[in-house]
Amino acid sequence: MTKDPIDLDTHRGMAAQKATEDRRHTAEVEADRVTLRQHQDELGDALSSGPAATWEEAGQKALYLITVFVATPEGQDPRYKKLIASSLEDIQRLSGNPAPAATSET
After folding, report:
1. Is residue 41 located within the same domain as residue 69?
2. Pick from 90, 45, 46, 49: which is nearest to 66 by CA?
3. Domain count, the chain
4. CA-to-CA distance for 23 and 64, rounded, in angstroms?
5. How confident is the prediction along the chain (106 residues), in pLDDT tens digits per residue?
6. Domain residues for 61?
């Protein structure tokens, strides 16, 4: 009997190894998705716990909502994407933290 673990993957075919790898990766992604959803719920609860006391807090709420919307299929519509980009630039500029100027490659 050996003390070293036996790597069983080396005794299986490539297709079986790939299938196992895919299942492990899918499980990791799902766990990450659950964790992310819990954090989003916590942040949403914190932001909706009461009215904003400052314009900065109101901007943070708007930024959160925009970020949630951009992840939806509707948020991927080119018309909305343009409006979202413009709104994010406005929030950044008006918050006193202007983003670096974008460079265009033409």
Report:
1. no
2. 90
3. 2
4. 32
5. 667 777 766 667 778 888 888 999 999 999 999 998 898 888 888 888 888 888 888 888 888 889 889 989 999 999 999 999 998 898 888 887 665 554 444 3
6. 51-97
